[in-house]
Amino acid sequence: MADQEGRNMLTRDRGFTILELMITIAIVSIVTMIALPEASVWLANSKTRTIAEGYMNGLQIARNEAIKRNIPIQFEIQNTGGWTVSVVSTNEVVQKSVTGTSASIKFSVIAKDNKTKVIYNGLGALVDSGNAIQELDFSPTSISTGKSTPVRVVISNPSGSVKMCLPSSALPTGDPRKC
Fold it and tell me: What is the pTM of this model?
């Protein structure tokens, strides 16, 4: 009989008590409440960077198509959002962005001097660089500006090469991410 009681003690049901579960849920809730605001900032900044990369890719597609076809190709920002790459002489659309906007994350795209086009010649250089987009600034508008990380796409004049950088004064001089 004592042997059976010892065996029952060793093989008792293993599990969690209600108190242990309540403490675990409380700890997880507190950690989530602390981390959630920072997660939304990270999500907004990631979305902004993704959108900026889409525009940068569109510019690179336009430049590469101009070199490949040896004819002028135009990159144009659309009023409705997104961009279009087209042949200048025929208006044939080479590629168009399919940019969906998220209801929870708003962003702004600002071209310096309100210019909306870039035209590349057959060598991949800018045509009429005085009237071309030189910079595109992207910033999330759904979070406070102190926590947001704006991104800038810069088009080199006259070569037409494209790079992405951070227009932050907080970055040290010589940092390759700095504009």
Answer: 0.73
In a domain, 148, yes or no: yes
β-partners of residue 30 are: none
Alpha-carbon separation of residue 8 from 16, 17, 80 (angstroms): 18, 19, 72
Phi, psi dihedrals of residue 20, rounded to the nearest 5°: -60, -40
**Structure tokens that stand for 117 in this block:** 């086009």
Q: In this structure, are residues 119 and 128 in contact, taking their beta carbons and an 8 Å threshold?
A: yes
Residue 12 lies in a domain: no
Chain segment 1-28, per-residue pLDDT in tens: 555 555 555 555 677 788 888 999 999 9
Residues in the chain: 179
Give the bridge partners for 107, in sequence order. Answer: 140
- Whether 47 is covered by a domain: the verdict is yes
The whole-angstrom separation of Cα 171 and Cα 178 is 6
Pick from 150, 153, 148, 151: nearest CA to 133: 153
- Rounded CA-CA distance 162/169 in Å is 21
| 111 neighbors 151 (Cβ within 8 angstroms) | no
Q: The tokens of 160 are what?
A: 């037409």
